[in-house]
User: Fold this.
Amino acid sequence: MALTASDWQELLGLLGQHPEWRAALRDLLLGDQPAWAELTRVLAELAEAQRRTEERLGVLEQRMAELAEAQAKTEARLASLVLQVER
Assistant:
């Protein structure tokens, strides 16, 4: 017997109502549950590492802007000093 679109929709509805059925189907489809749990853990760790990297990058961008501003001031002061020495 072939599944129809309405059978599929009914199955999805039942899976939505029964988390334990959904878990059993996931285990059947994905195989080894510990491997799935490990993958989930690793993905969470990667997401956290990415968040920290973005945070650090924001700090670095701010520091680079501060350094560029300080460099511009230093160059202006140096140019002024060169003019004074030339006089």
